Amino acid sequence: MKLIRWGHFMRTLFFSLFWIFSKCFGGAFSVLAMWVNPIKYYSRKGAKIGENCRWYSKAVCTEPFLLEIGDHVHIGSGVQLITHDGALWVLREKLGRPGLDRFGKIVVGNNVFIGNNSILMPGVTIGNDCIIGAGSVVTKDVSSGMIAAGIPAKKIGTVDAFADRYLPDCFETKDMAEAMRRKMILEALP
Q1: b/e map 96-112, b = 16+ CB within 10 Å
Q2: CA-to-CA distance for 94 and 64, rounded, in angstroms?
Q3: Dihedral (C-alpha) 91, 95, 97, 102: value to the nearest 10 degrees?
Q4: What are the tens digits of pLDDT across the range 102-155?
Q5: pTM for this predicted structure
Q6: Most buried of 21, 38, 62, 82, CB within 10 angstroms?
Q7: What's the order of all strands across the beta sheet hosting 119-120?
């Protein structure tokens, strides 16, 4: 019991010191802070992030204050949330306007899954109860209850149809002992 408390204390101390250094010194500490806990990092930078979210991506969003993420949102590994239009690089030179920029908010509703390596472009809104397929490039809004995938992302179905198709093949394995979970899965699969 004391080892668990000591481990918790050390972990809390490490993260607290880490955040102090990142706030005081910025730079490399700030980037490392984003890698350690992206939800906490982006929230401190102005992002609105709901409860019970999982954020696995280490890609940097340069304007986190333009992010609105709902409750129970999964952001997979490699997901990029792009809030500015980098292609203006060309217009800056062509028009002689070196300060030209274009920005757009990214709004994600509640109960959303964003698959690995997807890209959300500036100005998109994803509704509630949506699934974004891995590797998708979202350039337009996705309505609530939809599944979108592809480059560019297009509607490929509904979450309700997904549930009807796949629920018969699903298992209740959360909080199950590893040995029992393994046995159940192996017995059920052909």
Answers
A1: eeeeeeeebebbbbbbb
A2: 29
A3: -30
A4: 999 999 999 999 999 999 999 999 999 999 999 999 999 999 999 999 999 999
A5: 0.78
A6: 38
A7: 80-81, 119-120, 137-138
Buried b / exposed e across 17-30, counting CB within 10 Å, b at 16+?
eebebbeeeeeebe
Whose CA is closest to 106, among 57, 58, 63? 63
Q: Which residue has the tokens 């980098």?
A: 86
pLDDT at residue 1, as a whole number: 45
d(C-alpha 93, C-alpha 73), whole Å? 39
- Partners of 126 in the β-ladder: 108, 142
Q: For position 35, what pLDDT does the model report? A: 55
3-state secondary structure of 118: coil
Q: Which two tokens stand for residue 12?
A: 């809390």
Report the candidate in 21, 20, 34 with the shortest Cα–Cα distance to residue 62.
34
At 68-95, the pLDDT tens digits run 999 999 999 999 999 999 898 999 999 9
Q: What is the largest CA-CA distance in the chain?
A: 67
Gyration radius of the chain's alpha carbons: 20
Q: Which amino acid would we find at residue 182?
A: R
Q: What is the number of residues in the chain?
A: 190
Rounded Cα–Cα distance for residues 144 and 147 (Å)? 9
